[in-house]
Amino acid sequence: MKRTLIILITTIASIADIGAQEVRNIIYLIGDGMGLASVSMMQLENNYDTTIFDRADNVALQKTYSLDNRVTDSAASGTALATGCKTNNTMLGMLPDGTAPQSLMELAADKGKATGLVVTTYLQHATPAAFYAHVRSRHEYTTIAEQLLESDIDIAIGGGMAFFEERYGGREGALKAITDSGYTLYDSLNEATTRDRSLIILADKEIEHREGYLAKATMKALQHLEGDDDGFVLMVEGSIIDGMGHGNDAEGQQGEMLDFMEAVEVAVEYATSHADTLVVVTADHETGGLTIVSSDADFNLAEQGVEYRWTTGGHSGTMVPIYLYGTGAELINGVTENSELGTTLKAIVSR
């Protein structure tokens, strides 16, 4: 905690010295399980024409290891990205000593900013939950569901109705709890038009692949958040990139990556027309140990084709990319810890 405090103080001081346009809005996009090889695969599949990743204003790298393991899980990495603090694997928004560090979303709400989450998995899953929940185990889904209703998140879009029903004794109890918490519940993006706190639940658990969903949901969240005078923080997760890595499914991961890239396009377009917006694109870790190799070892030949090969069904310990766009893109540089990225974003919100 002492080192984290020193990093936070140093980061705030360095940010204060920069006379750039103030950052009012942060759009934080996390490709769960997206490594450099996943990005390279999409460049190759696009015949090396420019992708949204190639258009970044700045690029950095982050180390993903957790406090107790050289290979992180999503709970520990999500906690680092959301709070600026490393923790043990499986712990979510909580340190080993029981301390519950403030997340970027909680800080933003304290500063009067609007906040939102958009995911393709359930909202109680490790990465999104790291932005509002504090539990010893990522598997405490019903407690996490309760903490979502107690949070200051203004709009949340994803799956996860099953965990509300489990926590509150069925559908009727879940609907009452959601209403009592101040949320308006929707089961369709098209129906959600209110400016009230909105909970858009589209599946019992994960959302089945829907082409264009993530971009549309990102647009819906931005429309909901953009009227706030103090700005906003929005986290968007391409959640199932990770699942395709676990399944060693290159074609499936390409589909999930395309959806995620469309959401990044929406965010960058928003930042282009709103000069006070920073877009941060990264991953929580790499999944599958993806490699891209030549189909033939004889490099005296012309084009031999490539093969996508996987080395694990789990996570790997490789560094992952950070792509930055818009105002403040120059503030994050070089090789950094995942926790330092979280700390820097909190420092920007604290300005």
Structure description:
The protein has helices at residues 2-16, 36-45, 74-83, 104-110, 126-129, 141-150, 161-167, 171-180, 213-225, 241-246, 250-273, 338-350; strands spanning 25-31, 58-63, 114-122, 155-159, 184-186, 198-201, 232-238, 277-282, 286-287, 291-294, 306-309, 315-316, 320-326, 335-337. It has a single domain, classed as Alkaline Phosphatase, subunit A, CATH 3.40.720. Helix 7 (161-167) packs across helix 8. The longest helix is centred in the last third of the chain and has 24 residues, at 250-273. It contains twelve helices and 14 strands. The mean pLDDT is 93. Strands 5-6-4-3-7-1-8-13-2-14 form a ten-stranded mixed β-sheet, sandwiched between helices. Strands 9-12 form a two-stranded antiparallel sheet. It has a two-stranded antiparallel ribbon with strand order 10-11. Helix content is 37%, strand content 20%. The radius of gyration is 19 Å and the shape is globular. The protein is of the alpha/beta class and 351 residues long.
